[in-house]
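Hi there. Long-time user, first ticket. I'm pasting a complex I've been working with (about 322 residues overall). I'd like to know whether the download I got is complete or cut off, because the file seemed smaller than I expected. Thanks.
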Amino acid sequence: MSARLVRLIGAAWFLAVLTLAMTSASSAQAADLKLRAYLVWGTDDPKPPAGKDYKAADAEIEKKLRSLPLKWQHYFEVSRTNFVVSPSAPTKVSVSGKCEIEVKGGPNSIVDVVMRNKGEEVARQKQPLPSGQYLIVSGNAPNSSGWFVVLKREE
Amino acid sequence: MDYEAQLKLQAYLDGELPEGEAKEVANWLARDQEAVALLGELRQTRKALAGFEDGVRLPEAREFYWSKIEREIERLDVKREEPVGVPFSVKLRRILMPASAVALVALIGMIVSKEILPSGSAYSTETSFRDSESFTYHDYAEGTTLVWLPYPAENDVADEKEPSTLE
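Hi, the file is complete. Here it is re-exported in full:
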């Protein structure tokens, strides 16, 4: 076997070990996730309530909500927030005075969302949230309307 | 006349046949002219060659000469059977070659799987609800997960009236 082939074999081994090390490192590391949260109001009224300056939800958000088995015809954006989540620092998104969701990041694009009502945990959803996918937490609101917290992964 | 019969005649001429067989051949010669003629030829041939053959003289005694040859043959046989040690580098290369091929295939597989599978796709979802009225809905085609809770919001989004239910 020629020396050239031996060098080639050695290089292949080095590359394999290096790739394995980099892959393991990237998998193990819990990278911070950039998220955007939309607080959306769903209703059958074509206009927002009097005195509320809500704009129509983004076309993309509306399309996502319409693809779900929901009854409402119109969706209005109440607010939106950009934030970064990490395992060590969960982020809270307020839905109302007594209802909030807490978002925490994990490895492999995992988001851990805890829903609290009056300070108590009422639901938990832990799942991967790759870029371009949505996690929507929702519930009923008075006057036959509904509320939605739409979480979208940015980047 | 077959080949065996000719050899028997030659052996008879050389005096190498046992007594019984020699008598048989003699009887055969008494009635077979062809055999007599062949015997005559063989006799003539031997007579003709006798003068040309010059004996080979060995430089030493016959037994000693042949025992030297025998010893040399045995020595060569032993040398041929002696196992040749394989260098460590050769052994190492024999292991490294297939292992390197496997490592390369695994490397390519890892790179391809990372491109095909989105990160986190192998992770299963965990869901827990306190109330039975809560549920989760997945739309894999749209890449959307809906978590429905039976809790109304109270400010900004809603007013004080009773909430209605989801269809």
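A couple of notes from our side: The longest helix of chain B spans residues 88-116. Residues 62-116 of chain B form one domain.
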